[in-house]
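Repro:
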Amino acid sequence: MDSLLIALSLFSPVLYLLRFKITGTLHWYPHRKSKAWLLKFLIQAKIINKMVVHGDFMKELIVQKHGEAAAGRVFAIPYPHLHDKEQHEDGHGRSEASELMDDARYARPFLLAFGGLRHDKGLDLLLEAIEPLGSQPFTLFIVGKEEDFGQADIERFLRQNPSFREKIVYKTEYIADREVAPFFKLCDAVILPYRKVFTGQSGPFTEGVANGKWIIGPDHGEIGYTIREYRLGYTFEAEDVKDLTKK
């Protein structure tokens, strides 16, 4: 429903007259006041009959903001774990992750930043955060499709910080479903350098947890709540590069 609140509002007279009741998934609470108002209107008018969210944080937030109108109509269903941990051992041979990570030059711990390189996922903040850590042993694997950021941004960082050439390994392209699980199995920790605007649940977060990995994620929203509640790793103040460096 995140992208359909305006459309649902425009069609609300027809939906109301025909007694349609909508069930939909909401990934995060609207950031814009106008969309938050539209959500309130659709809940109060009972056009939105049931809402699925991906965690208790979001469920409690909606009930807190909308009271009895939302109570009993919002359901927390965990974000799905989509990739079998043993998927890469089914006869497909060595995985892309194995080819990338089985290199004696790369020092552990292996830190994985996985997923589309969008602005809200904060690759630029992560690169800034690791810059003071040049003397520390680690390898950062950046794996995901180019979007707002890409290979050119990583190469620019490496030209400015040549000592990181063997500390940063990247694969900036779409990763096939059957190749996802090995990256999470072989890494030591998953880093989610997300900006404040990212308040929902995360596929890489779920995959990391399912594989028993240490999580470093923002302290706000669904991810921050879940890391703290289940003691899954470290949280940092979102967009605070120094705090991310420390964690």
